[in-house]
């Protein structure tokens, strides 16, 4: 088991599996809520709030996998015509921006989670501590930062174990 395998497992494969599990849980909650609402005339009052929170987690985890695979949106209409050195410089700048923005956002989200924890704030309907949904931003942007570093390091300095995805897909 190589370090590259472990990094790929943590930053891409586990998040993908977690997203699948989250979607299944969301479908189950939604189904139970529909049956409760239209068959028994008693919907689950907390269902929509919990669905919102778990979808936030799914998106936050998915962003890591997208970043690791370099499948995020990129503006490369003209960059194919640039000289190789300029493309390399733009690539370095792009990775630096992703790392800087995501790292900064992760730290700021951590401060917000700390404030929520100090205040003991809970959600209105389900009574879920607000640290749980807000922690998705800490985890998501932290993992985006790590995924950008890992992917750039693999691409720039490492041996590629698998072909790079086509960024246009």
Characterise the protein shown here.
72% of the residues lie in helices and 0% in strands. It is an all-alpha fold. It has one domain (3-157). Helix 1 (3-38) runs antiparallel to helix 4, helix 2 packs parallel to helix 4 and helix 3 (84-119) runs antiparallel to helix 4 (131-157). The longest helix has 36 residues, at 3-38. It is elongated, with a radius of gyration of 20 Å. The two termini are 30 Å apart. The model has no long low-confidence stretch (mean pLDDT 91).
Judging from the principal axes of the Cα atoms, what is the shape? elongated
Structural class: mainly alpha
Q: What's the N-to-C terminus distance?
A: 30 Å
Treating each run of at least 4 consecutive H or I residues as one helix, how many helices? 4
Structurally, the number of domains stands at 1
Instruction: Give start-end ranges of low-pLDDT stretches.
Output: none
The arrangement of helices and strands along the chain is HHHH
Helical percent range?
over 70%
> What average pLDDT do the residues reach?
91
Strand content: under 5%
Rg (C-alpha, Å): 20 Å
* Total strand segments: 0
Biggest β-sheet description: none
């Amino acid at each position: 088991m190589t370090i590259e395998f472990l990094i790929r497992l943590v930053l891409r494969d586990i998040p993908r599996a977690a997203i699948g599990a989250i979607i299944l849980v969301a479908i189950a909650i939604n189904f139970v809520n529909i049956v409760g609402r239209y068959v028994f005339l008693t919907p689950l009052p907390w269902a929509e709030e919990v669905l919102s929170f778990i979808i936030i987690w799914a998106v936050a985890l998915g962003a890591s996998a997208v970043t690791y695979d370099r499948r995020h949106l990129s503006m490369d209409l003209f960059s194919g015509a640039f000289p190789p050195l300029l493309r390399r410089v733009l690539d370095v700048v792009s990775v630096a921006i992703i790392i800087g923005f995501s790292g900064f956002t992760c730290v700021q989200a951590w401060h917000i989670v700390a404030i929520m924890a100090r205040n003991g704030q809970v959600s209105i309907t389900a009574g879920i501590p607000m640290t749980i949904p807000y922690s998705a931003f800490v985890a998501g942007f932290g993992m985006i930062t790590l995924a950008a570093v890992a992917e750039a390091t693999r691409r720039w300095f490492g041996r590629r174990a698998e072909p790079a995805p086509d960024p246009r897909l």
